[in-house]
Amino acid sequence: MEDTKVEDEKNVGLLSSGYLESQKIVLPKDVFRNGFTWFCYETFKSLAFRIWLLSWLPVTTWWKMSTNWIYPFLATNLLILCVFFLPLIQMLCRKRTLSKNLTQFSKEIIANSPGTDVENWEPIAANLNSYMYENKFWKTKYFFYGAWNCQEAFRLAILEPFSVKKDDDSKLKSFKDSVPYIEEALEVYFTEVDKQWKLFDTEKAWNPVNLDDIQLPKETYRFKLTWVLKRIFTLQCLPLFLHSLNCIYISWHYGLLFRIPYLGCIFLMNMHTFQNLRGASMKNEHKMQFLSSIINEREIGANGWDHIAKRMNRYLFEQNVRKNEDFFFDGIDCKWFFNYSLCSHLSSKKTLSHVPLDVELWPYIREAQSSCTDESSVQI
């Protein structure tokens, strides 16, 4: 009976999720001028903002009735400071609401079969926006701003947390009744990802005609430091650079014993962030092309990694990931990126919002690892 009930609930969810398919999909990105105006609108409609507004009434009354101005003044300043916490409260409420609707989220994924392409997530985002508003889980019709927000929510709320848990008990404890729906949703998602992978791996979707025409940055730059500095002084790294300058300025007023370890920690943290920026600039399809190039590379050793670096530099340039063919400095840098940005995720025990674990690519990362191991054994 329980199995029949679960199956019926799934069927109801699948049928109800398709009511937007016959209509034109409209998301908040099509309604609002930009993401900032959408976020302001969502904040103004939130319960936290209304409580904040009502809090001004007793403070105003206090100003009129109090003979001592210091306490109303402190209360006014406290309310003004609370404005900066409203976005944080809004984010926490959004996360809590999503955690209550993982079952419906999974049903939408089962119904629409999305892959790694952002466009495939548009009907899911639109359906969930309507579902949460109509069922009074959210105050507005604009929970997800765009399809990419929906895809990122899936990564942070379902894909990575569920995948890093090794046993059924921990999954049941964290996700409760949503487990059967999540398992089916992930199976559907991984099937779509595998279809996309086969396009890269079997058709070898992109292959340069002549690698001799492509130069690596190590051949055009005199020093590797020049190449690194060129990457640092870009708009993408500007906030990181300004943050470093601000930390240097702050530490200048303290003693040498404090300044050295403080700046050392800041340097290591910024280097970690800087290294992750390169991986974050690649979409899943770019990483698939990278892994496919590693698996299908016939040359072994340093020459093989140089070939992969050349292919990827040209490919990422043509995909507008980089303005120049300088993503990888040389084969050594290419191999380091593979080990640091992809292989290291296989042993991850927790999710990180700023660093995707690329869970859907784990089988292909292992295949690429195995390919590299086989080449090393042949070389020996």
From TrEMBL:
KW Transmembrane helix (keyword) present: yes
Membrane spanning residue stretches: 69-89
Keywords: Membrane, Transmembrane, Transmembrane helix
Superkingdom to which the source organism belongs: Eukaryota
Keyword Transmembrane: yes
Pfam assignment, any one: DUP
Protein's recorded name: COS6-like protein
Designated gene of the protein: SKDI02G0020
